[in-house]
Every structure is written in C-alpha cells, then in structure tokens.
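=== Per-residue structure ===
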Amino acid sequence: MRAFPLAVKRGWWDNRGPMTASSSPPRHSSRVGIGKPLRRLEDVRLLTGRGCYSDDLNLAGQAYAVVVRSPHAHARMAAIETQHARVMPGVLAILTGADYVADGRGPMTYSPAARHPPDISLENLDRVPASASRQYPLAVGRTRFVGEAVVFVVAATLAAAKDAAETVRIHYAPLAAATGAAAAALDDAASLLGEGGSNLVLDAGVGDHRATEQAFAAAAHIARLSTWVQRVTGVPMEPRAALAEFDPASGRITLYAGGGSIGRPRQDVAAMLGLPQDKVRVIARDVGGNFGTRNSSYPEVALVAWAARRLRRPVKWTGERQEAFLSDHQARDLKVEAELALDAEGNFLALRSSNLSNLGAYAASFVPLTKGTELMSSIYRIPAARVRARAVLSNTPPTSPYRSAGRPEVMFVIERLIDLAARANGFDRVELRRKNLIPAVSLPYCNPFGMTYDSGDYHAVLDRAVALADWDGFAARRAATEAGGRRRGIGLGAYIESQSGAPQERAEITVRPEGIVEMVVGTLSSGQGHETSFAQLLAEWLGVQPESVRLITDDTDRVAIGAGSHSGRSLRLASITAHEATGKILDKGRRIAAHRLEAAEADIEFADGHFTVAGTDRSLDLFSVAAAARVDASLPEELRGPLAGIGEVTSGVASFPHGFHVCEVEIDPETGAVEIVRYTAVDDVGRAVNPLILHGQTHGGIAQGAGQTLYEQCVYDSNSGQLLSGSFMDYALPRAADLPFFTTAISEVPSTTHPLGFRGGGEGGITPALGVITNAIVDALADLGVTHLEMPVTSERVWRAIRAARGQ
C-alpha cells in the first residue's frame, strides 16, 4: 500500500459554506475535486424515475414466489400439508425445510464471532455454540419467531402463488416463548437451542476489573443508570426482493438482489447450495436504503436460487412491507446497568457496566455488542473500566448491525450518566464534559478497553458545537418559551465510533479514449452518493470532470474483490485503492506522453488533465494519451493497450469519527408532546470529500436518531411473542414536519491512520442523537424532579412523568 502526504490542514465546513476556525479549510486545485460541495450526479436519474431497483427487474418466463411464515414465536411443526396446494392451477413447486435438507443444502452462513481488527476480543467468544447460528432458509422441525419462513410456494403468477399459500396447512405445537432479553436469559426460560441448553450464548468480560473496583471504592460520587435501548427495525425505502435464473448449459445461477454488497450474497448462496463461487453471479442495481440491516444474506435470496435451479426457470420474490416488519433483521435491543465514578472535583475515575444484547432467534452478529463495548468510555478520560458483555437468544427476528452498530446505545448510556452526575452533584454539564475530554496532545490515545483513537481535537469540537448552538443564549429562549406556557430544555453529548469493516478492497480504473473514466470497485451504494464522491476523487487526481466517470459496483462478473458498504468502509478504502490506481495511470501516461512529445520523461508535468512538457505549451490531454496507448504501434510494447491501473488494499486499521451535538426541545405540559426546535451538530470526518453530501448524511442520521428517541419501537407481546407494531399504523417514524432545520458543521482533523486523512461521515448523525435528545427532554423537566425517561420518549411517557412529578 502506498503512503501519501497529507496536503490538508485542520478546518471547518458548516452547512452554509466554508468557515475558518484556528486554521484555513483545505484548498484543492481541482474545481470539482476533493472538498467541493458538488450536487449529487445520481439524483437526476433517481428523482426522475430512471432508477432500477430489485423489483424493477424481470425475466422472460419468470415464476413468482410467496413465503408462508410462522404465526407462532416458538412451536414444533408436527406436519405440513401441501397436497391441495400442489394441484392448484399454475403451481410449480411447494418447498419445505425438509425438502431443502433432503436436497443436501446448507444453513445460513452467519459468522457472528467474525471480527475485523482492531475490534476487541471478548472472552469466551470461541465457546459460542455453533447451533446458536444454525438457521435454515426454511424452518426445520420448529419455528423460533413470528414471521420465520416455513414454506416456499412458486407458481406461474403471483396471484396463483398467493392462493396456493393460503391452502398450506401447518400443524404446530406451540412452545413457551421469551421475547425480552432479561426473560430469555433466565435459567428456566424455554431454550431455543434444545432441551437443557441455555439461551445465554455469550458471557464475557472486557477491561480491568480490579482497577475499576478500586476506583469505585475511592469515588466521591457515583452516578447510576438502569436502562433499555429498545429494539427498532431499519425500514428501508425499498423492501427486499430477489430474482434468480439458472443456465443449464453452464450450471450457473444469476441472482439479482440489492443489499449491502454483491460479494457476500455470491459467497453465501454458493456455500448454501454447495456450488463453486464461479457458478454464482450476483447483480444489484440501485438499492433503496440499507442502514446495515440488509447486509446479511436473507433466506429468500437462497430460496429463489435453489428454486430456479430445481425448476429450470427464473423465480422472483418481492417482500411486502408487513413481511419486512416480521422478518427483516432488527436492531439495538440492549439492556444496560451502568455506573460512573467521579472524585470530589468531578474527574472521571471509572466506568462499570453490564450489557445484555438480545440477539433474536439466531446469532447473526455480535458486532453491535463488541463495537459498542469497546467504545463505551467515548472521548473522555476514564482511567479504568470493566464491562460484562452478554448475548442471549430470544423468540424474535435476529438483530444485526444498524447504522453505527452498537455505538448509539453506549453513547446514550455514557451521556446520560454524565448528565445524572452533573445534576446530582452540582456540576455544570458543559464544564464537566470539557474537564474530562481527552486532550489533543494525548492522541493517539488508548481507551480503557484497549482501543487506540487516531487523532482529533475534542475540545475544539465541543467549543464549536456550544458556540453554534448559542448555549449561552438558552436562558433567554427558555424564558420566552415558559412565558407561553411551554417547557424548554437543552442537552448535549459527544460520540466516537470506530470504522474498520472487511479489510480488503480493490479498484480497477481505465481511461477510455472516448472521454470516459471507468472505475470498478467492490462497494455498493444504498444512497450515500458514491457516484458523486468517487468521481470527485478521480477529478482531483486525473483532472477530469466528474460527469465523465462511470462507476461500476453492481456485477460480480466485473467486480473481482470487494465487501460492499458497511462500517464506513466504502470511501475510506476505495480512496486508497483509487489513489494507487490513478498513480499507476499517471506513471504510464507520463511515459507515453514523453514518447509522443519527444521529450524526456522527467520533463513531463501533469496538471488539470494534461501532460505538458515543462516550460512549453506542448501537451496532450489524458484521453489523447489513452487513445495513443491503443493505436500507436511505435510505442514500446509495455506502454500499449488500455491506459489503466489497479489498486488493492488490505487494511485492518480503524479510523475514529467523533463529534458533539446539541439539541433543544419544547414540551407541551398539557399533552406531553415533544418538539425538537433546534439541533446543532459538529462532526469530525478527517477530511471532507463532498461537504454537501456529508451534511445530508448527518441530517439523515439525526432524523433516524430522533425516530428512535421519540417514536420507534418493535413491540412484542410478552406471552405470545406476537409483533404488535407490525405496520406503519403502529410503528411511528419521524416526518419532515417533526424536525427543524439543522445547523451542522464539519471539522477536518486528518486521520493519522489513513494515508489520505479520511474518516467516514455517514454515521455521525445518529450516534449521539439518542443521548442528546433525551438529555434535552430531561432538562426541560428537571425542575419537577424528573431524572430520566426511557426511550421512546413518547408524549404519553412525558405526560405521565409530569403528572407523577406534580403529584409528588
């Protein structure tokens, strides 16, 4: 991997344009290159209906599939009657889990313990029973959550498939179910692993137990919090869909399915069906939202491929929104008991916590638990810490990484603890945080869990956030609000998140004579603006216009290596590979230009897309050089052919985006209704490729954080395990009218662990939002004696808290 100098200083970008802090914002030579707020190139196509999503794809002669799902949270299947369905008009196949196993096919390919450096290693992680992750695409023997796939019905038309599915009769013997983590962890809870097996599949410790206990024994103040960060679902714009076709001549399956990547479903489907990977091709066009919950390969992806191979015709399945609520992977669901120890002056001494993660029916991923645990101390100096990290199975859909996996939960906890400590002991909330921030001179800094933060200026970010939010002017705004009969509160909080992800990435870049630069890379956009940001990288380094760049990420026949988009890896790794590839292109181009211009190679300069003989006006543009490489027979053999370069990277080194957010709310004391009236965010991304896109990413993240804080929750009946919030009539999302215009600013302190200084910027909006908004709500009610409110902080919860406080 090549190392590149950092031609960038620390600076700021706010959502009104560049703003000078203690130094100037980075300057770039290219008019449309790195650092420019270029409007997204893909938006015209997407907003005018020219996008192509998974359900838009159809093949001649395709059949249609419907999934029959379990109505029980936990039940044995005594028998499945399909005789009537099999003889209905248009029915092509009725497939069960028994058929799948008899066909020699394998289970889902979850790797819950898989970690990418530098993620912490939990004790006992190697003792997790393999059966905890053994899910078949169709349930075998028994079902473990409401909505689990049981029968796959394939027919010539969708209507015929639905009609046949209605006639399938499954004889269930219901079993006891547990949907909450605490209930599922009890010794007498019904086991999901079989007779006598515990649902608690991981019980590990991280940190220094002895030092933590000693610090708590010496503490002058201890703040305590018992809370549950509730379960939510991802609700992407586009429900999942999959289409597969089988070529009998080659024995190859082509799968059309959007998600987090194309490489993972190829690998997973090949493994499940027992095929070499070169016998599976995956194509994904546009992806309408992901947020992480679509990164795993779902049962339906394997089922359409399996069915297409059996039937020798294409098979398509498109999920409905109700199915998404029932069967999509869900997120969060962390029960926490935490304490923060302080000395008499307010210095943080130690943190201890018990974190219980609800995995759902199958252990799909420990990433939210591990990534949250390792950063629980945030950007504060906490000398000692100890966390007991546990994971339990329950009769609910699996949980998996969801935007900023695991970090919003623990940032909520630490920021609530700090506010509790401040109020209980008379500390100023801002000064208590400022006092305990890690100073810039201490970076890189190893936190008490062994994670080493790269770089930053946390005090400057706090100061900027407080200034932009006009913290000092809050008292006047509160007085004006209270004069109108409402309550007003302000809250703040910090965050840090780690970005690592799958370490390998590759970029293949080709300059075509017709004026196109083609970039093949193994990431996959689900709305992050890759077509624009990646093009800006090439505009910076090759001097081309972004509109000339063609990004190819959607076909495993073109993309040799790549793990998709997760953990903020896309631009962070693609930028390294693209820079390496463009460097090779320029090296070759300089040699070709020297030959064509009859000059010494050392005299050839490159700028603004042109190779020029130094001190003269003799030059060739990049595309002319590409044409010469293809047609000029006088060139040396090694210079002929496409003007192209390949870059590869394998990097397990993380970067650590961070920031401070401030929120103000108004509350109607008669109804408990909460309104967010101001929200300010300052996020450090290392180096901004496109500030406009970064501001948009922050806005979306804040909206998701507001959704979880105020509205969203997957509610299950504790006795039957039925999902009670299975539609948008019952599961509330924030709307545009519920949110104010945000004030957002970007800090740029280059990452020291990335050769170009980049950190990701797609997850910072949501990571602190839960704690920040809740802190503001509690502040509005603090004079009534309210010290904490659980999420979602609905109007009813607020109303009841106000009534209870007045009653006391």
Notes: Confidence is low (pLDDT under 50) at residues 1-9, 18-30. The first helix runs from residue 43 to 47. Residues 257 and 538 are 28 Å apart (CA to CA). The radius of gyration is 28 Å.
